[in-house]
């Protein structure tokens, strides 16, 4: 029986995925990388900032040192933070707050399990914090999805065994991480049919029957 739900943040609760893409695109342009496109950005979903940078640099002929890479990741993050500046609750995806409230009323424990180190800022700006019991994010982890670390930390913070948690994800790396952590998964977002999740829906408000997922 499922007693806790661990939600990915970017692309599941909030529409930050486009902002990540625009910030990476700006960096790629400045580095003279012309081929960075939405197909590459799809692989950046769910994975850490440094792993995302490697996907951008695949298109570059230049070899960067670790120190240069750290500076590039920071530069991208500054562009991303500029885009987050005016963020408010309008960035919360349609129906999310209602669904979180309903799941809470059913007695479920709710957590975020996100690769993002910006998760606390985003949760604060969007007013999502009061809907959640715990947050596990990029500030807690050393390994990137598809490693299950971020979800296992979330389960631990909820004081639940992994098999009693459901993971909600929009990325292939996240669905893989859920399975590696012995958790059932619900795939949502633009690629929900192709993620290989245990359950799938276009978005959270489109879940037809929570009862069958949670039993
Ligand atoms: C994930 C995003 O949630 O967070 C990735 O899907 C992103 O695209 C990752 O790279 C890390 O985010 P941040 O905010 O720490 O750079
Ligand atoms: Mg995501």
Q: Numbering strands along the chain, what is their spatial order in the largest sheet? A: 3-2-1-4-5-6
SS class: alpha/beta
Radius of gyration: 17 Å
Report mean pLDDT, rounded to a whole number: 96
Give the uncertain stretches in residue-range form. none
What is the global morphology? globular
**Distinct small molecules bound, one entry per kind:** 6-O-phosphono-beta-D-glucopyranose, magnesium ion
Descriptive overview:
With 215 residues, the chain is an alpha/beta fold. The chain has helices spanning 17-30, 38-44, 49-57, 66-84, 96-105, 119-126, 149-157, 172-180, 210-214; strands at residues 4-7, 109-113, 134-136, 165-169, 184-187, 199-200. It has nine helices and six strands. The chain has a six-stranded parallel β-sheet with strand order 3-2-1-4-5-6, sandwiched between helices. Helix 1 (17-30) packs across helix 4 (66-84) and helix 2 (38-44) runs antiparallel to helix 3 (49-57). The structure holds 6-O-phosphono-beta-D-glucopyranose and magnesium ion. The site of 6-O-phosphono-beta-D-glucopyranose has 17 residues, from helix 3. The site of magnesium ion (MG) has 8 residues, from loops.
């Amino acid at each position: 029986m499922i007693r806790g739900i661990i939600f990915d943040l970017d692309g599941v609760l909030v529409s930050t995925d486009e902002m990540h893409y625009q910030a990476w695109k700006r960096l790629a342009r400045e580095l003279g990388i012309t081929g960075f496109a939405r197909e590459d950005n799809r692989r950046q979903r769910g994975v850490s900032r440094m792993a995302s940078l490697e996907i951008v640099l695949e298109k570059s002929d230049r070899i960067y040192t670790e120190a240069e890479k750290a500076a590039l990741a920071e530069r991208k993050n500054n562009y991303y933070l500029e885009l987050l500046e005016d963020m408010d609750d309008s960035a919360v995806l349609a129906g999310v707050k209602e669904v979180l409230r309903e799941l809470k009323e059913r007695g479920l424990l709710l957590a975020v399990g996100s690769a993002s180190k910006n998760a606390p800022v985003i949760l604060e700006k969007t007013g999502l914090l009061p809907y959640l019991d715990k947050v596990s994010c990029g500030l807690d982890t050393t390994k990137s999805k598809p490693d299950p670390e971020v979800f296992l930390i979330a389960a631990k913070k909820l004081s639940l065994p992994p098999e009693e948690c459901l993971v909600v994800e929009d990325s292939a790396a996240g669905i893989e991480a859920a399975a590696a952590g012995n958790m059932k998964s619900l795939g949502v977002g633009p690629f929900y049919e192709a993620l290989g999740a245990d359950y799938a829906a276009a978005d959270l408000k489109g879940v037809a029957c929570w009862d069958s997922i949670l039993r």
